[in-house]
């Protein structure tokens, strides 16, 4: 892996189609912009219509002639996920980038009754990937990339309390949702290999990147002091979002990316060019991966024909 890999190293993406969830701001927006700059058709899958249309305009302004389109998707509502998949406008899907996420929110539930962080960060993307699987399997060279976090290390999942109903702690719940992202990629990779599929499933994380993700929970609760601390950290410690997007772009486009790999910033996992990133042993547990998969199928009602355990 090149020490200096950056967006200029993205291979030509002409003729390829990418779906990026949460592409209205931060890392998702930059990912969409750089893929469009490299020739890809990008679908910006976002919950908020106004912000999604603004992001589409920003990509088109940055990349004249870009094929960029906002498409509504609310990962906190499985009916929206199903509608998105049913109306997907092509038989081809080269890149599915599961980027959208929420962080350290006060306890809340999705439209389907799931704890918000687990529901959005994991279950929404699990359902989306499963529903789009036929498109991915039918596209040579396709990849799925899920954006996790170094914060997965704060907690393993609790298969008996996936919705954190017994003892909700916002950062533990966030860590569990990010562990779920990595377990999902691990189990998906295992099942794809067993099926003899060439579809590559990989994971990435941005390190500490300056986005609005850090301050969202504090602002929801009007915790001004906490919001100021995060804002200060974004200015002083964090790397820019453009750098934070590089591990995702690497996992999505670089030649030779291995299934179930985990890419993050090189310098202590916080900053720098993309490099292999450390992950906890519980994100490589076959038994936990299968149990989470089965539970996710039951909770979402989305099954995966052809990818049996």
Q: What labels would you give this structure?
A:
309 residues, alpha/beta
Overall shape: it is globular
> Sheet with the most strands?
8 strands, mixed
Whole-number mean pLDDT: 90
Proportion of beta-strand residues: 5-15%
The quaternary state of the protein chains shown equals single chain
**DSSP summary, beta strand count:** 8
Order of helices and strands: EHEHEHEHEHEHHHHEEH
Give a brief rundown of this model.
Helices cover 42% and strands 14% of the residues. With 309 residues, it is of the alpha/beta class.
What does this structure look like?
The protein has 10 helices and 8 strands. By secondary structure, it is α/β, with parallel strands linked by helices. An 8-stranded mixed β-sheet has the order 3-2-1-4-5-6-7-8, sandwiched between helices. The longest helix is centred in the middle third of the chain and has 25 residues. It is globular, with a radius of gyration of 18 Å.
């Amino acid at each position: 892996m090149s020490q200096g890999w950056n967006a200029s190293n993205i291979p030509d993406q002409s003729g390829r189609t990418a779906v990026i969830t949460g592409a209205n701001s931060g890392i998702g927006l930059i990912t969409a912009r750089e893929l469009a700059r490299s020739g890809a058709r990008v679908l910006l899958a976002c919950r908020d219509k106004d912000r999604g249309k603004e992001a589409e305009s920003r990509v088109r302004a940055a990349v004249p002639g870009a094929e960029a389109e906002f498409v509504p998707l609310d990962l906190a509502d499985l009916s929206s996920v199903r509608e998105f998949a049913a109306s997907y406008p092509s038989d081809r899907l080269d890149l599915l980038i599961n980027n959208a996420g929420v962080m350290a929110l006060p306890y809340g539930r999705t439209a389907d009754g799931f704890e918000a962080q687990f529901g959005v960060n994991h279950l929404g993307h699990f359902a989306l990937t499963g529903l789009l699987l036929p498109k991915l399997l039918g596209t040579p060279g396709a990849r799925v990339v899920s954006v996790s976090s170094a914060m997965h290390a704060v907690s393993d999942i609790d298969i008996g309390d996936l919705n954190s109903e017994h003892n909700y702690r916002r950062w533990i719940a966030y860590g569990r949702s990010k562990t779920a992202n990595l377990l999902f990629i691990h189990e998906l990779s295992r099942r794809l290999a067993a099926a003899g599929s060439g579809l590559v499933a990989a994971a990435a994380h941005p390190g500490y990147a300056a986005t609005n993700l850090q301050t969202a929970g504090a602002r929801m609760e009007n915790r001004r002091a906490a919001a100021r601390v995060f804002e200060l950290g974004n200015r002083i410690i964090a790397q820019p979002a453009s750098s934070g997007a590089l591990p995702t772009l690497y996992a999505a486009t670089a030649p030779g990316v291995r299934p179930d790999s985990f890419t993050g910033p090189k310098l202590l996992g916080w900053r720098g060019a993309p490099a292999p990133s450390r992950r906890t042993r519980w994100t490589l547990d076959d038994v936990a991966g299968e149990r989470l998969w089965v539970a996710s199928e039951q909770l979402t009602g989305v099954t995966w024909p052809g990818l049996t355990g």
